[in-house]
Design brief:
Structural class: alpha+beta
Largest sheet: 5 strands, mixed
Number of strands: 10
Helix content: 10-25%
Strand order of the largest sheet: 1-4-5-6-9
Shape: globular
Strand content: 25-35%
Number of helices: 2
Amino acid sequence: NQIEVVFVPLLCFDKSGHRVGYGGGYYDRFLKKCPKNTVKIGLSFFDPIQKISDINITDVRMNFCLTPKKIYEFWGYIFLLNNNIIPTPVEIEVSAILKTGSKKVKLSPPR
């Protein structure tokens, strides 16, 4: 019950927050045991594909995915960049966040 954030390695992910891991199901089994409000952050070198077609009922979606250039968000946050509200799901240029010192505002609890 003390785990708040889990960083998840992956091979690829889609625009809905689903991921393809390394095939063992380790992270999915581990994440099922974590509290529902645990933030799940994927780490990827690549941008998302449109859709992963073979999603399994035991797969756990991510809340965010970090790539070298963007942060992809899959739950109820908005980012305020230069006073502009951007609805989610959203992809944000990392350089834009670093330059503006953006703030995030929580709209709803994680799924």
